[in-house]
Amino acid sequence: MTDPESGTPSPGRPVQPTSTPVFKDVLKYGAILAVVIAVVGAVLGGVFAGWVGVTSALIGTLMAVVFLSITALSILIANRFIGSDLFVGLFFGIVLGGWLLKFALFIVLAVILKDQPWIDPVVLFLSLIAGVIGSLVVDMVVVFRSRIPYVSDVTLPGDKH
User: Can you tell me the mean pLDDT for 91-102?
Assistant: First the structure.
């Protein structure tokens, strides 16, 4: 946070929350995972269902990446308001808005993609599930390796600035 009068960082307070690098790593490793799932899904989809399988695998992977990135991106966007007096309200409003966007987008895509002749529902489902499970593994690994203390962004009485 910055001092409103001088514009310099306030002593003892971070410029960004300690969770910001974690969510950036989640997005980075999630993108790498998505490329792997897209390639493997496209190859397997092509072998078992032809070009329809390739298309379905790529669409399923794209859906997984978009849905799973919305949460991390909404938290990163909300973290930009950390210096605001309305931070808590803005944070939860932005994150809730991201979840509502994901819900609405999923319903719209489910209706649009249902019964399309260029979609293999099994390949689409499997690539979507692979993306979800893979992103959970990425989240777990990144959080375990992040080494963030249990209590962060806090200045205790008596701490040196």
Answer: 94
